[in-house]
From TrEMBL:
Entry keywords, A to Z: Aminotransferase, Pyridoxal phosphate, Transferase
Tagged with keyword Transferase: yes
The family this protein is said to belong to: Belongs to the class-III pyridoxal-phosphate-dependent aminotransferase family.
GO MF annotation: an example: transaminase activity
Organism: Actinomadura fulvescens
UniProt name for this protein: alanine--glyoxylate transaminase
Gene3D superfamilies linked: Aspartate Aminotransferase, domain 1, Type I PLP-dependent aspartate aminotransferase-like (Major domain)
Length: 425
């Protein structure tokens, strides 16, 4: 039995069935450099999903590696959360400033799930309510609270949750009742729906709305720009907090704004982050107005959240993003790729929709089988992507923000060749 089949058999024996692996023959990635990875069989791939939006600068980035090595050389991988940590304070200062949230404070976690769980806790405590608004087809994590605000059947393992959630329209324009509506009219319908939900379905004491500015596993589904600003006017009337889940959309990825919520022209009360900030090292966190963050009545900590190694990686990654203005690169490369895919969509009926912002773009196909086939076609040609969408019918791409002109052209070429093969042309 070839070695990676053996590994797959061992994986299936000891790991959960719901831990989905990509590709008919799952890949074991053994090394990476720049925006390319190599598998155990020696195949090289252009990674158009940057791990899982984790390697936002690519692989083996000297600035990040050297920062981590410098920290390792001190002998301090972890001490105690009872001591001051310089890297943690420095990173919190940068993120607080970048968030635009007034009087912001930052709490570090190890994952996006924990970050959202913390934000929900802060909201529930400060508003003394377990009622949360969330978006249909959203995904916010796999913990008991986060699953409660997840509105995507494919990722929702239980409806038992400490959170009492109400799900809003805003990312479901594919439904027939919204066909043909302009952005403006759809936004009006959504705002009316929000008012109706508040008046008729809740007990009137809702704590927060949590939302992804562009839905990740939901298939890079995009609410119309400005929707969250329109929602916020209503939320403010009721003292309801806005939590922006930036786990996928943060750090300039959308090209047009440093955090995804900026595309809506609104500042949230809290913002959560994870994935790309550590360029592969585990870092997540919450930024909240100080008054919300400080309100919790008991002592709290995260033993590994904000640890020295993650902080070294995250400071180096964030500095790199800012010094090289990778937001501008995301805007430029994204425009080329999305433009190229739209042109292809005009002549290839296999493409049902192309959408995205910056280096976060997706191709919608008729069904999950066609999406799986596109994944296989791109893999054959040396490009990795990610599957998603409400019906598993979307192929998502989120390359590293360091993507070069040549890599963008190469990736676009592979995508078009693969779509042409599927289209039978
Ligand atoms: N929020 C969003 C928008 C995500 O996409 C994810 C993960 O994919 C999470 C939260 C959960 O993050 P993690 O897997 O780090 O717990």
């Amino acid at each position: 039995m070839p070695d990676n089949e053996n590994l797959l058999r061992r994986h299936r024996a000891v790991m959960p069935d719901w831990l989905a692996l990509n590709y008919e023959r799952p890949i074991e990635i053994v090394s990476g450099k720049g925006n390319r990875v190599t598998d155990a069989d020696g195949n090289s791939y252009l990674d158009f999903f940057s791990g899982i939006l984790t390697n936002m600068l690519g692989y083996d980035v000297p600035e990040v590696r050297e920062a981590v090595e410098r920290q390792l050389a001190t002998g301090i991988v972890h001490t105690s959360t009872a001591y001051l940590l310089r890297g943690q304070v420095e990173l919190a200062e940068k993120i607080a400033r970048l968030s635009g949230i007034p009087d912001a404070k930052v709490f570090f976690t190890n994952s996006g799930t924990e970050a959202n769980e913390t934000a929900l806790l802060l909201a529930a405590y400060s508003r003394r309510s377990d009622q949360i608004l969330a978006m249909r087809q959203a995904y916010h994590g796999r913990s008991f609270g986060a699953i409660g605000v997840t509105g995507h059947r494919g990722w929702k393992n239980t409806s038992f949750s400490p959170v009492n959630a109400h799900f809003l329209h805003g990312t479901d324009r594919h439904l027939p009742q919204f066909a043909g509506l302009s952005d403006e009219d759809y936004t009006k319908v959504c705002v009316e729906d929000l008012r109706h939900v508040l008046a008729t379905a809740t007990a009137g004491d809702v704590a927060a709305l949590i939302a992804e500015p562009i839905q990740g596993v939901g298939g890079f589904t995009m609410p119309p720009d400005g929707l969250f600003a329109a929602y916020k006017e209503v939320l403010d009337e009721h003292g309801i907090l806005l939590i922006s889940d930036e786990v996928q959309t943060g750090w300039g990825r959308t090209g047009s704004s440093f955090f995804g919520i900026g595309n809506h022209g609104v500042t949230p009360d809290m913002l959560t982050f994870a994935k790309g900030l550590g360029n592969g090292f585990a870092v997540g966190g919450v930024v909240a107005r100080g008054e919300l963050m400080d309100a919790l009545p008991a002592v709290g900590l995260s033993t590994f959240g904000g640890n020295p190694i993650s902080m070294a990686a995250a400071n180096a990654t964030l500095d790199y993003v800012l010094e090289h203005d990778l937001q501008a690169n995301a805007a430029r490369q994204g425009a080329v790729i999305i433009g190229g895919l739209r042109e292809a969509a005009a002549r290839l009926p296999v493409i049902k929709d192309v959408r995205g912002k910056g280096l976060m773009f997706a191709i919608e196909l008729a069904d999950a089988a066609t999406a799986a086939a596109l994944m296989e076609e791109t893999r054959k040609r040396g490009l990795l992507g990610g599957k998603g969408g409400l019906y598993g019918n979307v192929v998502r791409m989120a390359p590293a923000l360091t993507l070069t002109d040549a890599e963008a052209a190469e990736g676009l070429g592979i995508l078009i060749d693969s779509l042409e093969a599927l289209n039978g042309s």
